[in-house]
Write a structure and sequence with these properties.
alpha+beta, 5-stranded antiparallel beta sheet, single chain
């Protein structure tokens, strides 16, 4: 099975919650650290048009909560630390699906790379053939001119 070490647990959780929307509320009470606002706690989940927003109350600002698109919990540029529920039923199947998708993408990339190399080889071979034909043509022009004839490309 291919390694998915570049898929973080927050990314895995988002994929899992998209497959199991009833799991979004398990985030409530989880601690997060935002790169600008600092430490906070997820206080709610808001569903809007098939999208989920994460409501976070930050330690430095208890008066208001801020809402973030759910995919932001997987972005280290937004949240540098995220505590998420573990051992969720069915998350292994999501992981396997992500592994299969990653393997398929790698396979498709390898095929595309091979095709690109083939195309580049054909282009290079065509260039070589065209140079060879140009040289042969120039040699024929010289031979014609050496016989006293004039060649005109008009």
């Amino acid at each position: 099975m291919p390694d998915i070490s570049d898929i973080s647990y927050p990314q895995l959780f988002i994929a899992y919650a998209q497959e199991h929307p009833e799991q979004w509320p398990t985030l409530v009470g989880q601690e997060v650290t935002h790169v600008s606002y600092g430490k906070g706690v997820i206080t709610g989940i808001v569903e809007r048009s098939d999208k989920y927003l994460i409501k976070v109350c930050f330690v430095n600002d208890h008066k208001s909560s801020k809402e973030f698109p759910s995919q932001f919990i997987a972005s280290p540029q937004v949240f540098c630390d995220v505590q998420l529920p573990m051992n969720l039923e069915g998350i292994d199947q999501t992981k396997k699906r992500l592994q299969a998708q990653k393997a398929e993408l790698a396979r498709q990339k390898a095929i595309a790379d091979q095709e690109s190399v083939k195309r580049q080889m054909i282009i290079e071979q065509t260039k070589i053939q065209l140079r060879k034909e140009e040289e042969e043509f120039q040699q024929l022009v010289k031979e014609i001119e050496s016989m006293g004839f004039t060649y005109s490309n008009q």
